[in-house]
């Protein structure tokens, strides 16, 4: 049972480059990627990505700007379908089932793979209605107030908002709004949570709060996080994937391994060059 | 050090007397801009002064709440309610047509239609808004009324229904275009968040986009209604010239605007009580549309577009 | 962990609802377009046979075969010419003031609020203003001059709005370069801003005029006539315009006059179409130029 927080404790001082996760735990594969290519029209954005994302672990995607990390992330919940001209080839298996098979309905599958965006984007509705939206569209049959409370507790926001659930979500601070977006994404009880630079628009205190959240959440939810912040990737993730851009401007996967290995003894020299800051 | 402007005795840069010219020009343009204020003042003054002649003879209470309008034919009555009800009846029918259709078109154009399709449809709908209203009046009288008479034989030649339906057609582009602008202003990130939660396109449109754009949509409806209230030629041609306090759209009525036209074309002498009725009616019409327009702007300012 | 039974996705139902909604939304668009098509078809059907030289060159008459739009066309030309003469300088001048000279104060706000409100005032009310102010108080009589002044007030907000947009679109760098060379404000406006904005201003003027051509109500209030058999010789003459003549024919009971009205409408629509096409053409050319 996950220990749920009512609110925020004072954030603990982060230990740089030392990860408390042990990567040798046995774990199932939740997402299996095989030779993934993504094209926007004639432009190839991502080429030849293959990887296995482990269940109930935190996987970080790092790499310079424009190398396709977000593009690959958006394939996992078929958000790329919404972009006209986007074409995905290759295979992405979610618990063994091909995500892009004809019989898979993206609308339903998005309730199992949730997403948190870079800039907090709560709906201009009440806090309660924000979290309840995911329950409503997915036909939740249980007790709504209980489920809303559960999600807000999982996102470590309950204590701060429990007396003002009817207030407009836009009244919250930036860090609170992002935690609300996390609560909102958790309401449909997804098995995977995709986070696209969730803390990059936030102040350092809120950032650390989100990182602690990720640590707690990954016991129930597989988390994939795209981040520009290498220290964050090192603090938070079990495994790290390093992406880069080719000469033809297509992104590709350079190295994918345990986080401690990537950041202390990477196999590829390009990885080493990136993490030591020789380019960004 | 020799002064380059006067070197050789010949000034190289002659100072031009620009200041007076610049100042005069500014005042000239200001005067042009003030014309707008003068226009509003002019409207108010001309309406009030001429309506004054009316109100000194007819108590305002009788005017605003009287239920019989007959300023020319005896027995004379000066209650404006029949004209107001005629205006509102036609406007109501028009709104019932234009608001659902305009809204639905806006949702289609902003949420469903691919770019190329939108670029074709929008100008076509704009054409509807550019057609002179006499043309709409002609259409209502010569086509719409006969067609409805096939289904409803009791329909009179001049009736509120045909006028209202065509009025609705006429203001569809206004409602649609303004609503669409409001919907397009909803940030993409909100829609993306909704899709990512597993919502269908319909659910995103109805539960997220329309509520977020609601103030703009309401303003669009208000502006459309205001336009309908002020419409003149269509209702003059198609709705009739019989002031009547009724809710029956099959009957012939007269709107405030149509009355003003009718009297203007008549032989009534200037300055008479009968003539001043057009200013009294005009004043009421002006206030009705003013309240609606101000209301529309207020709605947008107070509840508009706050996403972050 | 997720309990699968607590979510009933109702996918089938939601997809059907979505399809029904799509059909309804599309139908709405179709209704609007269909209405337009039926309207135009009806007019063409009734009016094509009445299109003839007599329609253009004759004066109105009690006999439909001899009736024509001559008085109306000349009246329209007179009215449009005088309207443009008043509204263009005032409208462009107001736009220049608001964009180049005005500062953020109560007066500027008041002016802008007024312009916004005036755009929503019913056109018949402008007719009453013109009647009281120009026809009676300034004793211009029911003349084409009074009509033009009234009409120019009516379309002034359109001209101001379009001109403001055009002026706003002039890149700031043009102005800065001119200032840096020592030009005064007025010189910058006259020699840099206005030439650059003129295509957009012109487009706005054409659109305003095309709106004015179709306006009937204020002209009726001013001229109070629908049957005229002469053309104006000077600004103080009485006049009639195209939409009023059409209105007059519509109001006649005889079937033939209905056809005449339709013919007149076709003429009016052709004029409007040409003006709008011109405006669109100018707008496209202007956009191409500013991109270079």
Label this structure with key terms.
heterotrimer; B: 308 residues; mainly alpha; two-stranded antiparallel sheet; 1% strand; globular; C: mainly alpha; MetI-like fold; 2 domains; 11 helices; 75% helix
Helix content of chain C: over 70%
Q: What is the level-2 CATH architecture name of the largest domain in chain C?
A: Orthogonal Bundle
Low-confidence blocks of residues of chain A: 1-6, 10-15
Mean pLDDT of chain C: 88
Q: Structural class, judged by helices and strands of chain C? A: mainly alpha
Number of helices of chain A: 10
Question: Radius of gyration of chain A from the CA trace?
Answer: 18 Å
CATH superfamily placement of the largest domain in chain C: MetI-like
Largest sheet of chain A: 6 strands, mixed
As a percent range, the share of strand residues of chain A is 15-25%
By DSSP, the count of extended strands of chain A is 10
Work out the helicity level of chain A.
25-40%
Secondary-structure element order of chain C, N to C: HHHHHHHHHHH
Separation, N- and C-terminal Cα atoms of chain A: 40 Å
Quaternary structure of the protein = heterotrimer
| Shape label of chain C | globular
Radius of gyration of chain C, in Å, reads 25 Å
Structural domain count of chain C: 2
Percentage of β-strand residues of chain C = under 5%
How is the secondary structure organized here?
The complex is a heterotrimer of chains A (280), B (308) and C (292).
Chain A: E1 29-40, E2 43-54, E3 58-62, H1 69-75, E4 86-94, E5 97-98, H2 106-109, E6 113-116, H3 127-137, H4 144-154, H5 158-161, H6 174-186, E7 192-196, H7 204-217, E8 222-226, H8 230-236, E9 239-245, E10 251-258, H9 259-264, H10 269-275
Parallel strand pairs in A: 3-8, 3-9, 6-7, 7-8
Antiparallel strand pairs in A: 1-2, 1-4, 4-5, 9-10
Chain B: H1 19-55, H2 60-65, E1 69-70, E2 77-78, H3 81-112, H4 115-130, H5 133-151, H6 160-184, H7 188-196, H8 201-212, H9 214-230, H10 233-238, H11 256-264, H12 273-303
Antiparallel strand pairs in B: 1-2
Chain C: H1 11-47, H2 53-57, H3 70-101, H4 106-118, H5 123-137, H6 144-168, H7 172-180, H8 185-213, H9 217-223, H10 242-251, H11 255-291
């Amino acid at each position: 049972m996950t220990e749920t927080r009512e609110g925020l404790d004072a954030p603990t001082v982060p230990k740089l480059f030392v990860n408390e996760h042990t990567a040798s735990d046995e774990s199932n594969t939740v997402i299996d990627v095989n030779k993934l290519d993504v094209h926007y029209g004639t432009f190839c954005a991502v080429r030849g990505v293959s990887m296995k994302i482990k269940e109930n672990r935190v996987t970080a995607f790092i790499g310079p700007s424009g190398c396709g990390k977000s593009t690959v992330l958006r394939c996992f919940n078929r958000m790329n379908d919404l972009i006209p001209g986007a074409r995905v080839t290759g295979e992405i298996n979610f618990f063994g089932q091909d995500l892009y098979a004809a019989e898979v309905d993206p609308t339903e599958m998005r309730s199992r793979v949730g997403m948190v965006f870079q800039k907090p984007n709560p709906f201009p509705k009440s806090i309660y209605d924000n979290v309840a939206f995911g329950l409503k569209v997915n036909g939740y049959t249980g007790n709504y107030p209980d489920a809303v409370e559960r999600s807000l507790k999982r996102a470590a926001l309950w204590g701060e908002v429990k007396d003002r659930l009817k207030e407009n979500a836009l009244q919250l601070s930036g860090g609170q709004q992002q935690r609300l977006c996390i609560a909102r994404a958790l309401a449909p009880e997804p098995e995977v949570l995709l986070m696209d630079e969730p803390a990059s628009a936030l102040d350092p205190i809120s950032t650390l709060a989100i990182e602690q959240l990720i640590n707690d959440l990954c016991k129930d939810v597989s988390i994939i996080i795209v981040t520009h912040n290498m220290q964050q990737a090192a603090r938070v993730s079990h495994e790290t994937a390093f992406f880069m851009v080719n000469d033809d401007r297509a992104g590709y996967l350079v190295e994918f391994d345990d986080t401690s290995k990537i950041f202390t003894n990477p196999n590829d020299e390009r990885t080493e060059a990136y993490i030591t800051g020789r380019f960004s | 050090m020799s002064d380059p402007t006067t070197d050789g005795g010949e000034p190289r840069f002659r100072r031009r007397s620009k200041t007076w010219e610049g100042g005069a020009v500014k005042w000239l343009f200001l005067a042009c801009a003030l014309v707008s204020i003068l226009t509003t003042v002019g409207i108010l003054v001309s309406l009030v002064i001429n309506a004054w002649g009316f109100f000194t003879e007819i108590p305002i209470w009788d005017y605003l709440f009287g239920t019989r309008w007959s300023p020319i034919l005896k027995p004379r009555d000066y209650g404006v309610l029949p004209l107001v009800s005629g205006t509102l009846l036609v406007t109501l029918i028009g709104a019932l047509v234009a608001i659902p259709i305009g809204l639905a078109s806006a949702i289609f154009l902003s949420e469903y239609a691919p770019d190329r399709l939108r670029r074709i449809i929008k100008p076509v709908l704009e054409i509807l808004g550019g057609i002179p209203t006499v043309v709409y009046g002609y259409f209502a009288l010569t086509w719409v009324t006969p067609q409805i008479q096939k289904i409803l034989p009791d329909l009179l030649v001049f009736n509120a229904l045909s006028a209202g339906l065509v009025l609705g057609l006429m203001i569809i582009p206004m409602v649609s275009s303004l609503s669409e602008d409001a919907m397009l202003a909803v940030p993409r990130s909100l829609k993306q968040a909704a899709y990512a939660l597993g919502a269908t396109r319909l659910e995103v449109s109805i539960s997220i986009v329309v509520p977020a754009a609601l103030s703009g949509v309401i303003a669009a409806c208000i502006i459309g209604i205001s336009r309908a209230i002020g419409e003149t030629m269509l209702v003059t041609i198609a709705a009739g010239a019989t002031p009547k306090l009724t809710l029956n759209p099959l009957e012939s009525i007269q709107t405030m605007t149509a009355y003003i036209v009718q009297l203007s074309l008549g032989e009534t002498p200037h300055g008479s009580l009968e003539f001043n009725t057009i200013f009294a009616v005009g004043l009421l019409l002006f206030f009705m549309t003013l309240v609606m327009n101000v209301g529309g702007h207020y709605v947008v300012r107070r509840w508009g577009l706050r996403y972050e | 962990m997720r309990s699968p039974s607590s979510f009933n996705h109702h996918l089938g139902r939601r997809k059907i609802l979505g399809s029904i909604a799509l059909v309804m939304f599309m139908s709405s668009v179709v209704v609007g377009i269909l209405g337009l098509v039926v309207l135009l078809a009806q007019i063409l059907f009734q009016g094509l046979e009445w299109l003839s030289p007599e329609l253009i060159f004759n004066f109105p008459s009690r006999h439909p075969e001899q009736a024509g739009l001559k008085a109306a066309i000349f009246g329209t030309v007179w009215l449009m010419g005088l309207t443009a003469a008043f509204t263009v300088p005032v409208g462009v001048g107001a736009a220049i003031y608001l964009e180049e000279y005005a500062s953020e104060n109560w007066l500027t706000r008041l002016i802008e609020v007024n312009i916004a409100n005036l755009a929503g005032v019913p056109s018949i009310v402008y007719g009453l203003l013109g009647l009281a102010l120009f026809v009676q108080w300034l004793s211009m009589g029911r003349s084409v001059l009074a009509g033009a002044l009234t009409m120019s007030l009516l379309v002034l907000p359109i001209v101001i709005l379009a001109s403001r947009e055009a002026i706003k679109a002039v890149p700031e760098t043009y102005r800065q370069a001119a200032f840096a060379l020592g030009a005064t404000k007025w010189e910058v406006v006259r020699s840099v801003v206005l030439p650059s904005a003129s295509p957009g201003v012109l487009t706005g003027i054409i659109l305003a005029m095309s709106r004015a051509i179709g306006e009937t109500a204020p002209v009726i209030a001013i001229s109070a006539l629908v049957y005229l058999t002469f053309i104006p010789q000077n600004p103080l003459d009485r006049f009639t315009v195209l939409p009023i003549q059409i209105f007059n024919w519509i109001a006649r009971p005889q079937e033939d006059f209905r056809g005449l009205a339709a013919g007149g409408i076709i003429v009016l629509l052709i004029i409007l179409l040409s003006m709008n096409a011109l405006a669109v053409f100018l707008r496209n050319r202007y956009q191409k130029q500013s991109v270079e």
